[in-house]
Amino acid sequence: MLFKQYYLEGIKRDEIALAYRKWKKAAVREGSLLNTAIGQIKIGKVDRVNIQSITEPEARKAGLTSLDELLDLLGKVKEGNVYRIEVIYHGPDPRVELRNKKKLTEKEFNHLAERLRRLDRYSKVGAWTSSTLMAIQANPKLRAADLAILLSTEKEWLKLNIRKLKNLGLTISHNPGYVISPLGAQLLKRMSTITAEKNRKS
After folding, report:
1. Residues 170-193: what's their mean pLDDT?
2. Which of 50, 68, 88, 117 is the most exposed, fewest CB within 10 Å of its CB?
3. pLDDT tens track for 45-66
4. Positive/negative CA dihedral, 19, 21, 26, 32
5. HSE on the CB side for 163, CA within 13 Å?
6. What is the C-alpha separation between 133 and 112, in angstroms, rounded?
7. What average pLDDT does this structure show over 187-192?
């Protein structure tokens, strides 16, 4: 569920408390948390509603200037049911603190390394996490399309999977491209040291 920046700011200021979407089925669940540019947004009640039941005050609570504006936006989506979603500002994005860590304990490193191994194990394209992290580190803020060419993969697949690395605190999104977070840099440094030690012993 995506929100424009002005909408997010309105939620944070407690000026916007509702969202309306037209979906074939609800795309969010009550109680779930969404990571956004301004922090975490909590999803309240999610109700399927009759479009004729929406009121002018509700449209304004959804950040629109009028009910007609809201109906016009919903009308642009040809198929689906209308859902009324309560949205509440929950707090800062915990990934920000995580990605700024500059030291990794042995336990933290092992946990992250296992998470990456799991992503590699269940990927249809095989191991991809280390090569992607190293490519981002070597090419900061490179456009996703160009990074995909560099890694010989599809752009949309790459963007989806880099989001998984971001959720681990290892990358930071920019416009355009991505950079390695301090946490990601520490992880790669540790992995490089381990690889070098194994090579010396072999």
Report:
1. 92
2. 50
3. 999 999 999 999 999 999 999 9
4. negative
5. 8
6. 13
7. 92
Helix/strand/coil (H/E/C) assignment for every residue in the chain: CCCCHHHHHHHHCCCCCEEEEEECCCCCCCCCEEEECCEEEEEEEEEEECHHHCCHHHHHHCCCCCHHHHHHHHHCCCCCEEEEEEEEEEECCHHHHHHCCCCCCHHHHHHHHHHHHHHHHCCCCCCCHHHHHHHHHHCCCCCHHHHHHHCCCCHHHHHHHHHHHHHCCCEEECCCCEEECHHHHHHHHHHHHHHHHHHHHC
Nearest CA to 168 out of 119, 103, 107, 105 is that of: 119
Sign of CA dihedral 46, 48, 53, 56: positive
CB-count burial class (<10 Å; 0-12, 13-18, 19+) for 164:
middle
Give the per-residue pLDDT at 56: 97
CA distances from 58 to 66, 86, 101 (A): 9, 11, 42
Q: Helix crossing, 182-201 with 129-138: angle to 10°?
A: 120
Do the beta carbons of residue 143 and residue 152 sit within 8 Å? Answer: no
